[in-house]
Structure formats: structure tokens, C-alpha cells
Design a protein that fits this description.
Helix content is 29%, strand content 24%. With 348 residues, the chain is an alpha/beta fold. The mean pLDDT is 91.
């Protein structure tokens, strides 16, 4: 799907994570990696630390911490929001949905429209897309989007323990509004469900549980399986195609972009994708060396943590590029020159 939405503004963004930092070199040592392998691993993937939320806190706690200061900075009352979109794979409960659990703590109106989405690494861009559709339809004037996951180390990985060296916890929040003078947003979304097994948590929900006999007792939870080679192939082909078709639709060359803020999958993958899209490494920076791959939060958290070192955001449009579980790719061309990007918040 390729769409343009006029008169939509991204008013503000904030990222949030936890205060616990896990040193990747020490984790590699605990896994029995030789020093040379550890150095190669860190150099290739780029993660020196991953940032985690302290247990028993969840992604909902991050939302409760991040949303109030964002609304305060934008001089908005919670009951002025017309819709609340929450995107996560790490919901507190299967039922009820996260928006209902967060409605009262955030002070949202009983008239607020609430929408919960299950998306992975493309979640933030998907959230922006749905917000834009609500705004352009005339149903809403202001929409709150939250996207985040607790994907970090939890000791469940069996057979792919290296996953614990990649993932961190995080959440991003954004407020979008309808403004006639706004530059508008371009989106490109593509879904490739035939590849759904590239990233999969096979024992996580009903498919596995309903395959067991009632007397089998313990349910083995083996965490997330990632087919690395197929994932890289997907990103470098579908990710490239998505970025290029969005630029073509918008009538822009890659040199016209301030930055392409990509999902922070790993350093090597972003470097390769940048080259395929005719972007310089400076235009597609790796920003998660001390945070890790935070799934749907990685784009807003990277912006929030690094906006001071990205001065060109205030000079030209930016492209947000995400890809991952589904499989799916989702890109957005956004004008962040008037967007308030708050420093990241770390919940203790």
C-alpha cells in the first residue's frame, strides 16, 4: 500500500526504556564465547550493551512514564486526545487489551477511540499510518500512538541464546494532529505472510497450547526463533524496494533526505541497506550501540536518544524505515522540522 496523507503533523515524540544495562562482552563470556568471537560479534552487530526494564515492570509501565511528559511539553490535556493507538507484542494480558488498562492511568476520556495492534519491528510506522487515516478521515483531531516491546533477555532462549545479546526493552510515544499547514506524510506498507516463519515464537500462544494433551502438564516456552540468513535476504531485498518506491512516489532523490532512521536491527544490516538505497552511512546511522534492538520502539527511541546528534532533522524531510516479523516492511516519509523530540526517559 502506497498512500499520502496531507495536513497531518507529527507534533511530538518521546522514547523510553529501563535503567538496567547488560554488557554484551560479559554476556558472551558467560555463553562460553572465545574472546575473538566476542569481538567479531560486537563489531558486526554493533551492540555493546542492551538496555532492559527492571522486572516486574512491563511495556505498559513505560507508557505510563512516557506519555504524561510528552503531553505536558505539548501543552495538551489527556482528555483532548480523540484516539489512542497501542502497538505491541508484549501486552500485559491476552485480554483485556493494553489500551483499556492504560485509559484511566493516562487520564484519557471515556469518549476516546482505542485501537490495539499486534505488530513487531514495523509497529511504530504502522501506528503512525493508522493515526494518519483517522486524522484525514475527519474522525479525529489529535491521536496518541504508543509502540513498544519488552524483547530483552529473559532466559527463555533455547538453541538461539545469541538472541539475548541483541534485544532490549523500549517504548516510543507520538502525538499526531490534523493541521492544514502541515507538510503531510507518505507511507509505503508491504506484507509478506508467506515468510511468517522467518521470525516466530512457536510455543507462545494457542497454536502450540491446543496441540497438547490436557495431561501433558508443563508447557515449554522456547522463546523466539529467527532465521538469520532469510531475514537478512528479506531486509536487503524488500527493505530496499520499499524505500526506493516511496522516494519515487514522493518525487525525491536520496540526497534530499536529512536521514533515514531505520529499525535498529544491527549495524552490518543497516550499512548494507544504506548502500543499496544510495544513502550514505551518515544518512542511515546506527544509533543503538548502548540500547539494543528494541523492536517496535527502535525508531522513536533512537530519535529520542540521538536527536541532538542529528541536526539535519531540522533541515529536510526524514524517512523512517522498518522491517521484520510478519514478514513486513513499512516506511514513512515525514517532516520532523517542527516536531518536538524529547530526550529519552529511563524508568528505574
Amino acid at each position: 500500500m502506497l498512500r499520502r496523507f496531507d495536513g497531518v503533523s507529527v507534533d511530538g515524540i518521546i522514547g523510553a526504556s529501563g535503567t538496567e544495562l547488560i554488557d554484551i562482552a560479559l554476556m558472551c563470556e558467560r555463553l562460553g564465547y572465545e574472546p575473538q568471537k566476542t569481538r567479531r560479534f560486537i563489531k558486526s552487530l554493533g551492540f555493546e550493551q542492551v538496555r532492559l526494564l527492571r522486572r516486574p515492570q512491563t511495556v505498559s509501565d513505560l507508557a505510563q512514564a512516557a506519555v504524561p511528559p510528552l503531553l505536558e511539553a505539548l501543552k495538551l490535556e489527556p482528555d483532548s486526545l480523540d484516539a489512542f493507538i497501542f502497538v505491541t507484542q508484549s501486552q500485559d494480558y491476552i485480554v483485556p487489551a493494553p489500551t483499556y488498562c492504560l485509559q484511566q492511568p493516562l487520564g484519557l476520556s471515556e469518549e476516546v477511540l482505542m485501537l490495539d495492534l499486534v505488530q513487531g519491528c514495523t509497529g511504530f510506522v504502522y501506528g503512525l499510518f493508522y493515526a494518519a487515516t483517522l486524522l484525514c478521515s475527519g474522525v479525529c483531531n489529535k491521536v496518541l500512538v504508543c509502540a513498544g516491546d519488552t524483547s530483552g533477555y529473559d532466559g527463555r532462549q533455547k538453541g538461539q541464546e545469541a538472541n539475548d545479546l541483541l534485544f532490549g526493552d523500549g517504548l516510543g510515544a507520538a502525538v499526531l494532529s490534523r493541521r492544514p499547514d502541515a507538510a503531510g506524510l507518505w507511507f509505503s506498507l508491504q506484507s509478506h505472510g508467506a515468510l511468517h516463519d522467518v521470525i516466530i515464537e512457536p510455543n507462545g500462544r494457542s497454536k502450540y497450547k491446543r496441540s497438547l494433551d490436557y495431561d501433558q502438564g508443563h508447557i515449554e516456552d522456547t522463546g523466539t526463533f529467527i532465521d538469520g540468513p532469510r531475514l537478512a535476504d528479506y531486509v536487503l531485498n524488500s527493505g530496499k524496494a520499499d524505500v526506493l518506491r516511496l522516494l519515487e512516489a514522493a518525487g525525491l532523490k536520496s540526497t534530499a533526505l536529512s536521514y533515514c532512521i531505520a529499525h535498529q536491527a544491527n549495524k552490518t544490516l543497516l550499512k548494507a541497506l544504506a548502500g543499496l538505497c544510495a544513502l550514505t552511512p551518515e544518512q542511515m546511522p546506527f544509533l543503538a550501540a548502548h540500547t539494543g534492538n528494541t523492536s517496535s520502539a527502535s525508531i522513536p527511541l533512537s530519535l529520542s536518544e540521538s536527536s541532538q546528534s542529528l541536526p539535519k532533522l531540522k533541515e529536510a524531510p526524514a524517512l523512517l524505515c522498518s522491517f521484520g516479523v510478519g514478514m513486513a516492511v513499512a516506511s514513512a516519509l515525514v517532516d520532523l522540522r517542527r516536531t518536538l523530540i524529547l530526550p529519552a526517559l529511563y524508568l528505574d
